[in-house]
Amino acid sequence: MSDDYLVKPGKKAKLDGRDPADTGGLKDEESARTQLADDIVAIDKLQDRLYAEGKRALLVILQGMDTSGKDGTVRGVFNQTGPLGVTVTAFKRPSEEELAHDFLWRAHLAAPKRGTIGIFNRSHYEDVLVVKVHKLVGAKEVDKRYDQINAFEKILTDNGVTILKFMLHISKKEQRERLQERLDDPKKHWKFNPGDLDDRKLWDDFQDAYETMLERCSTDHAPWRVIPADKKWARNAVIASVVRKTLEDLDPQYPKVTWDPKSFRVE
Ligand code: AMP
Ligand code: MG
Question: Is residue 262 in some structural domain?
Answer without folding.
Answer: no
